[in-house]
Amino acid sequence: MNRQSKPKGAVAILTTAVITSALAGVIAPYKPNYMNENAIGLAPSFRHIFGTDNLGRDLFTLILHGGRASLIIGIVSAIIGTFIAAVYGTLSGMANKHIDNLMMKAVDLLMSIPGLLLIIVLQAILGDANYWSLSIVIGVTNWMQMSKIIRSEVVRLRKSEFVIAAEMYGGSFWYILRRHLFPNYFSAIMFMAVSNVGSAIIAESTLSFMGLGLPISEVSWGGLMSLSQDALLSDQWWMIIIPGLVLISVLVSITEIVEYIRGCNTSKHSNI
Question: What is the pTM of this model?
Fold first, then answer.
């Protein structure tokens, strides 16, 4: 059997991104909103290692602080979406046939509505965008597919001998859930939760690129990418390439970690 190699490089990149973003206030050489009118649109140099934007802000500083915003939104929205999916999927899988079918039809109906449209409508209801409003709207619109997967896991586990035996001996819903179901699909939940972090960062970046994300005073990776439109017209290649490479590196790292978790989960089930 081939042992799957651990994504050490991906873990290192993601860990570095998390730590540097968390310590942005200490590491960053400038304040995130400090504008130097004498340093507008400067290419990378010793003084500004990643260059400056068209407002004279240090790009290295913006990337550090932007990472904090994007990662907070990604992690919080993933927690919200995973929690909703776990509860809904488990209840659907444990319910009788008619209720299960009704709950899954409701999910199919929600999935037929474009996710971006749902996010825009909910954000309009909540008002001005901030960390928490974006986390909420992305989280509550990104759980449907996950709930179907969890529901399938619960249905599969309910047919196993140990769950059938527990039901025959009068095991309560909460006992079966705690002792038999949750421990056996926890790894699947973790896989989807990590995957959702990447999806949420992409969603935040898309909203910011469309001008629907955080205000300009709140920096995020998506907000930096939205500035690339102006950079194209002024030949400021560093405003496009550097934030893009940072964002792609983090997303690829998350994908590699997700694939590793998926592989471990698949191997576990194949050995049962």
Answer: 0.81
